[in-house]
Amino acid sequence: MKLLPKTEKINKNLDKSEAEVFYRRAKRLGNSAGVLLPKHLLGADVKVTIIKKPVDILSIKNEAVKNLEPFFEELLGIYLIKNEKHYGKQNEKNCEILAISKKAKEAINKDNYRIDIVPLDVIKKAVKEKKTIRDKISRAGTIFNSSLLDELKKI
Known about the structure:
Elements: H1 7-13, E1 27-29, E2 32-34, H2 57-67, E3 75-82, E4 95-101, E5 106-109, E6 113-119, H3 120-129, H4 131-139, E7 141-144, H5 146-154
Parallel strand pairs: 4-6
Antiparallel strand pairs: 1-2, 3-4, 3-7, 5-6
Helix pairs in contact: 3-4
């Protein structure tokens, strides 16, 4: 196995005319992630720079539960709604947390996600009347109380 020289040496020896820049999204390759490049670069020394890390769903779930702690007595269910159409855009919230409560109503904004605390009667009415809410409920994943989510999906 041939060891590559240190990064500094590679950069110093690389002529600007030889450098090619590719912007690619990392894809699943077996049990890891990788970047696919054109075949003519097979055997080339490459440098991969992370521009923006993906949203870590587990840390969002944990942080959301901590933020919802003051409302625990009111909460009936907590659900994660991933916004697929906005995934990867810098200015959009990548995830929504829907917390269904007995009566409490509140919105909490964070960097990569938003928490909406909505009363059960309001969400039931919205599911019946609004297609966008039905779509969100159908995309939702359970953090707490899957039976309530199943009930809302049947409405």
